[in-house]
């Protein structure tokens, strides 16, 4: 007899664009994930999105969602400065939480969340969806197997152009700026691929004087076994790429962060031929990284397993980001 499928019942905290445009539809394709309710500060907005996305329940405040006993887990895509506050509130109502990146704007906020998580027996995680995307798992596996020789250098880039003063990324008090918004991915993936923590970091920032945010960040992270060098920007032509240079070969992820759902992902293998004639491509079958992320998190809830990104990892990532801000401020490593 076929076993009945148990799905985790999720509630969505806000009508954030990332949720309504990409994450909720992806969650609805999940095998272990069920979207049961959405909350907004405006009941009209909540009802509009519940109608459009076929979500059974709509609430006109975040508190009402947390009071719903049917809801087991919360997806928190609020602006960055509200992540910790509403994650803790959700935990106080006994909910598991998958919170958008960056989880916290101060590493010192995280230890108390870890204590509360242990006390309540909840699953809490940061939504770094790249960590469960098969293209990243493949690159990690190839590097660990020595496929490129010894990994010495990671080169990364991530940018887009957004100068809308109302966008949360351009509001300094909300945790705006390039490093918090997208530089966090470059820090996280460099740490993930090296499997180490950096021992020294340097950063240089170009600031937007009107918004008082970093619009370009360039960084060097020195790990025990190699370096990661990257730039991220909120005000440059949209582009993203990750390259992993070994002593024998180089791997390149063509679309590392916004992996499209309608075409296979590609990893390019460069063997050192000057004209790149012998480049090969590894094709990763079409998938949706948000669906994978939520099913992995739901599985951790159902089976009492470890979250795909643990709070301990989040703490270390946040410490590195803080060190980069300090380095840019004093213009020293
Ligand atoms: N993982 C990814 O791929 C990815 C991609 C994009 C963004 N993100 C992250 O997701 C989060 C949301 O990003 P977004 O671009 O979707 O943001 P957004 O469209 O501006 O949505 C944020 C939502 O938060 C609610 N909110 C509560 N208090 C607010 C306040 N004081 N000001 C503004 N909004 C407030 C609003 O919902 P209500 O009006 O319904 O209450 C608003 O719609 C950010 O943390 C971002 O870093 C992740």
Q: What's the structural blueprint in terms of helices and strands?
A:
Blueprint: E1 8-13, H1 17-27, E2 33-39, H2 43-53, E3 57-59, H3 62-67, E4 73-76, H4 83-92, E5 96-99, H5 110-120, E6 124-126, H6 134-144, E7 151-161, H7 178-194, E8 200-208, E9 213-223, E10 226-233, E11 235-246, E12 250-253, E13 265-270, E14 280-284, H8 289-303, H9 311-330
Parallel strand pairs: 1-2, 1-4, 2-3, 4-5, 5-6, 7-10
Antiparallel strand pairs: 7-11, 8-9, 9-10, 11-12, 12-13, 13-14
This protein binds NADP nicotinamide-adenine-dinucleotide phosphate.
Explain this structure to me?
The protein is α/β, with parallel strands linked by helices. It has 2 domains: 8-128 and 292-311, NAD(P)-binding Rossmann-like Domain (Rossmann fold, 3-Layer(aba) Sandwich); 134-286, 2-Layer Sandwich (Dihydrodipicolinate Reductase, domain 2). The protein has 9 helices and 14 strands. The strands form 2 sheets. The chain has an 8-stranded mixed β-sheet, covered by helices on one side. Helix 7 packs across helix 9. The longest helix is centred in the C-terminal third of the chain and has 20 residues, at 311-330. The termini are far apart. Bound molecules: NADP nicotinamide-adenine-dinucleotide phosphate. The site of NADP nicotinamide-adenine-dinucleotide phosphate has 20 residues, from helix 1. NADP nicotinamide-adenine-dinucleotide phosphate binds at residues 14-18, 40-42, 45, 77-80, 82, 100-101, 127, 129, 168, 181.
């Amino acid at each position: 007899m076929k076993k009945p499928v148990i799905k985790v019942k999720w509630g969505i905290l806000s009508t954030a664009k990332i949720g309504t445009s990409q994450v909720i539809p992806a969650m609805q394709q999940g095998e272990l994930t069920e979207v049961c309710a959405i909350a907004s500060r405006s009941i009209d907005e909540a009802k509009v999105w519940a109608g459009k996305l076929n979500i059974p329940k709509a609430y006109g405040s975040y508190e009402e969602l947390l009071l719903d006993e049917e809801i087991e887990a919360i997806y928190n895509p609020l602006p960055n400065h509200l992540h910790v506050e509403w994650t803790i509130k959700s935990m106080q109502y006994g909910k598991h939480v998958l919170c958008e990146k960056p989880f916290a704007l101060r590493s010192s906020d995280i230890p108390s969340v870890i204590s509360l998580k242990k006390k309540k027996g909840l699953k809490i995680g940061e939504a770094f969806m790249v960590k469960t995307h098969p293209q990243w798992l493949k690159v990690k596996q190839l590097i660990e197997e020595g496929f490129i020789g010894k990994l010495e250098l990671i080169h990364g880039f991530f940018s887009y152009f957004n100068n809308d003063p109302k966008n949360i990324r351009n509001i300094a008090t909300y945790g705006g700026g390039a490093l918090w918004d997208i530089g966090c991915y470059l820090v996280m993936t460099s740490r993930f691929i090296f499997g180490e923590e950096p021992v020294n970091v340097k950063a240089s920032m170009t600031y937007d004087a009107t918004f008082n945010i970093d619009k370009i960040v360039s960084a060097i992270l020195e790990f025990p076994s190699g370096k990661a060098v990257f730039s991220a920007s909120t005000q440059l032509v949209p582009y993203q790429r990750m390259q992993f240079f070994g002593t024998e070969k180089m791997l390149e992820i063509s679309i590392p962060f916004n992996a499209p759902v309608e075409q296979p992902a590609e990893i390019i293998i460069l063997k050192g031929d000057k004209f790149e004639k012998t480049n090969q491509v590894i094709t990763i079958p079409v998938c949706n990284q948000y669906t994978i992320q939520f099913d992995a998190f739901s599985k951790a809830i159902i089976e009492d397993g470890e979250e795909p990104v643990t709070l301990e990892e989040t703490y270390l990532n946040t410490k590195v980001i803080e060190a980069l801000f300090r380095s840019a401020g004093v213009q020293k490593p």
